[in-house]
Amino acid sequence: MVFLQNISGILSEHGIAFLKASWMTISITAVSLLIATIIGIVFAGFKISSIKLLNRIADFYIGIIRGTPLIVQIMFLYYGIANFVMLDSFTAGALALGIHTGAYIAEIFRGAVQSIDKGQMEAARSLGMSYSLSMRRIIFPQAFKRSIPSLANQFIIGLKDSSLVAYIAVTDLYNTALSVQGENYMPFETYFVVGLYYLVIVIIFTKFSNMIEKKLDVSKPKEVRAA
User: Fold this and answer.
1) How confident is the model at residue 143 (pLDDT cuts 50, 70, 90)?
2) pTM (2 decimals)?
């Protein structure tokens, strides 16, 4: 009973603050995922390119991102770039999250593209399409559909990873929880509440991604074949 009373008290006193923080979490996640998707498409193209230099650039980028912790990347970007350009914490956090997630999205797209039957490209080229046109009209649409489940999973990971921007003063859910538990000295109850907020956001996003999968019929990818 005491636990529930404490939870109720936190919600009644700080519910509005947590709602505002939820919007901040969603906003920085959305911006970072947009950046990550663009980066992912570019570096996936580098990975599957026949140009070795582009392959090496992609390998270097993905290797560095995978080999270092996200919190280090956030701090490095936030404090390092401040020597050249002044960025607010939201922009720096979104960039860091986007650069980090972009490496994983690049691998998702690469795997999806390479999973398409090579005959699809041969058929498109035999019809007179250029390589870039074949990729844009035939290969990539199919690869994108196949990558949706993995992308949805990576987006959820990105949402939860966004909690680390609290350490560069972004007033997201986790940062708000840090402030609240410092006031009420009830860390367990406070983090329980913030966990519920994250859970609700993830559930909503999961439902939305499932709707997209069903709408695009991801489970039954349709391949274009030459007659």
Assistant:
1) confident
2) 0.86
